[in-house]
Each structure stands twice: as C-alpha cells, then as structure tokens.
Write a structure and sequence with these properties.
mainly beta, 7-stranded mixed beta sheet, 4-stranded antiparallel beta sheet, globular
C-alpha cells in the first residue's frame, strides 16, 4: 500500500514563494508518475502539475512559469515549488501518484494514490 503525506503549506502574501513536499511510503516510487492537484473552497479539485517517471512535466496553464514540479527518488519525495503566488492559488493542495501514465493525465480518476492535502493560503 502506497501512502502519500504532504507538507509545506501555510499562509503567505501575494508574490511570495512556498515549496510543498510529498513523501511516499510503500511501492516503487521511482516508477510512479507523480502529480499535484488543488481544491479551492467551493470548487472541484483540479490538476496542477504532473511529473512522469521518465521525466516529462506538464502544467495547467495558470501556473506555467510560476510553479515547478520536481522529485528526488532517493528520498521518495515530490516537490512543488510555487513562486509569485496569487490569491487565486489559495487551495488545499493534494499529492497524487499512479504507476501508469495516461494522455488524460488531468483526470483525478487516473491516479491511484492520494495524500490528505496541505492548505495554502495567499493573502492579497
């Protein structure tokens, strides 16, 4: 059983940076495709970024140029570096993983493992 635990959220001001971390236990982390999703109050959970096991990265348009997803397989950790944060980035951020990669990687259903989330609040 794979477990994912996020950390690094907090309250920041617009323009600040945060780095989220997600540590995995169980499974073969280096072969998993790892993603970040977020859910703002009253909204559906949405895709933010994915990093495939082989290297390619994909981002949702609203974070391109500001967020970067990376991983350290030795530490079984995936990161989300968030720069130039905006109030609209306020959400609970979730880490997700899957042993398979699909062309419709933005769908929640494409991921088998989920963390419990970490809150990010950006004040204006």
């Amino acid at each position: 059983q794979v477990q994912l635990v996020e950390s690094g959220g907090g309250l920041v001001q617009a323009g600040d940076s945060l780095r989220l971390s997600c540590v995995a236990s169980g499974g073969t982390f280096s072969t998993y495709n790892m993603a970040w999703f977020r859910q703002a109050p009253g909204k559906e959970r949405e895709f933010v970024a994915v990093l495939t096991w082989s290297g390619p990265r994909y981002y949702t348009d609203s974070v391109k140029g500001r967020f970067m997803i990376s991983r350290e397989n030795a530490r079984k950790t995936v990161y989300l570096q968030m720069n130039s944060l905006k109030p609209e980035d306020t959400a609970v951020y979730y880490c997700a993983g899957s042993p398979d990669f699909y062309s419709d990687y933005r769908l929640l259903s494409r991921y088998d493992y989920w963390g419990r989330g970490t809150q990010v609040t950006v004040s204006s």
